[in-house]
């Protein structure tokens, strides 16, 4: 105990987000001190138990048990319990933990020891403490811009490669590229959304994004195939069809994602309008940049570079617009609290 009392505080000072945990062993009755990696979330301190199968200390908290935690010489007492993998509590707290300690990855099999502090305990402990929604617009814009930019490289490259191919071949290749784009975009969005929307599963979000993307690409390919015929037809037919196709394209991803958000977010239907506005702005930016630059007879490499540059601008505009809407939507929903106060 004496060695721990001397060494643990030193270690806690040298390593960020390492604190000293003390408790009394249930069976031995001994006072135990050890360093732990943790993050503070409101009135809760979350301790990750790495390689739990080789450790026993955390089993003292299989039922609620008193514990104390110290940082910068200040002790705070609370009640601790274990959040087990596979439970909703574990999923939510692991997401918050991951958001705060971005350099750490929390394996789904790691238990968490949850120390509930007295309500409104002032945080002077030095532990990193933030709401997962802090800087949400910036994180969303940067992450989604990168994801969509990477995802769009496939359609940009494939579009140039198949411009002289048979229609069926070109359509199949572009749909495959659209599948890649939807997967990467969905993964990027899920990375930001999962920590701030409790209950949201990344796999469900990615699947919905892929399905919406495939619908959008299918509509675009139909428009490319029959667009000239429709444009030269009667206005009474061509105008409604054009409007219907454009609206369906803009709404496809939003509707697919709304199905996933609906049980989790208040008035989730607003996300449909948000994605439509984002994609409308992004596509307009893409056309505005690439139309003057693309010219007949240009080298293959230049055409691809222009397309990728247009995709980057499109991604940035879409991400910025949808991010603004996302912040507004989550600010008025009761489904995603800034930090849990009683997680049991």
From TrEMBL:
Keywords recorded for this protein, A-Z: Membrane, Transmembrane, Transmembrane helix
Source superkingdom: Bacteria
UniProt KW Transmembrane helix keyword: yes
InterPro entries listed in its UniProt record: Split_barrel_FMN-bd
Gene3D superfamilies: Electron Transport, Fmn-binding Protein, Chain A (2.30.110.10)
Transmembrane segments: 205-227, 239-260, 272-294, 300-331
Keyword Transmembrane helix found: yes
Entry protein name: DUF385 domain-containing protein
Organism: Nocardia rhizosphaerihabitans
Taxonomic path: Bacteria, Bacillati, Actinomycetota, Actinomycetes, Mycobacteriales
């Amino acid at each position: 105990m004496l060695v721990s009392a001397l060494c643990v505080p030193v270690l806690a000072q040298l390593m960020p987000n390492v604190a000293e945990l003390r408790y009394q062993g249930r069976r031995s009755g001994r006072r135990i001190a050890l360093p732990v990696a943790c993050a503070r979330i409101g009135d809760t301190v979350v301790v990750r138990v790495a390689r739990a199968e080789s450790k026993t200390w955390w089993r003292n908290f299989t039922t609620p048990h008193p514990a104390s935690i110290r940082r910068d010489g200040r002790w705070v007492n609370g009640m601790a319990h274990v959040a087990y993998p596979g439970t909703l509590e574990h999923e939510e707290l692991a997401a918050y933990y991951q958001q705060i300690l971005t350099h750490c990855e929390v394996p789904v099999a790691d238990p968490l020891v949850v120390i509930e502090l007295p309500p409104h305990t002032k945080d002077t402990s030095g532990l990193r403490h933030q709401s997962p929604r802090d800087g949400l617009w910036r994180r969303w814009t940067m992450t989604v811009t990168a994801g969509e930019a990477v995802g769009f490289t496939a359609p940009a490259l494939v579009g140039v490669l198949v411009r002289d191919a048979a229609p069926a071949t070109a359509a199949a290749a572009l749909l495959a590229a659209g599948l890649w784009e939807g997967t990467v975009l969905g993964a990027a969005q899920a990375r930001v959304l999962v920590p701030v929307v409790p209950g949201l599963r990344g796999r469900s979000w990615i699947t919905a994004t892929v399905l919406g993307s495939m619908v959008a690409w299918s509509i675009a390919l139909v428009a490319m195939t029959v667009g000239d015929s429709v444009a030269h037809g009667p206005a009474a037919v061509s105008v409604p069809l054009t409007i219907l196709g454009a609206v369906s394209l803009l709404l496809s991803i939003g509707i697919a994602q709304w199905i996933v958000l609906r049980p989790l977010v208040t008035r989730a239907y607003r996300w449909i309008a948000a994605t439509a506005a984002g994609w409308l702005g992004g596509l307009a930016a893409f056309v505005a940049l690439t139309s003057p630059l693309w010219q007949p007879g240009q080298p293959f490499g230049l055409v691809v570079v222009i397309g990728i540059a247009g995709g980057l601008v499109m991604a940035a505009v879409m991400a910025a617009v949808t991010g603004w809407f996302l912040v507004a939507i989550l600010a008025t929903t009761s489904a995603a609290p800034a930090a849990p106060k009683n997680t049991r």
